[in-house]
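Z., the sequence and structure:
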Amino acid sequence: MVSYRTIVHPIDSTTTRTGLRGRAALDTSRYETGFAVNDEELARINITPNSFHGEWYDTLYAPPQLA
């Protein structure tokens, strides 16, 4: 990685097919570490590898009740 901007800028400049604009900013806050997500919690997340560099990016989908 060359800089945080290398990561944040492509996300910040994303627009969906329907015109929804993505927003991103660097969060420099400190967060607690050391806790894990169990298999049941992970199964509830509707997430798939993105078609563009799926090894780096994931696509999150709204739960069916919100879609």
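Residues 4-60 form one domain. The chain has a mean pLDDT of 85.

Let me know what you think.
H.
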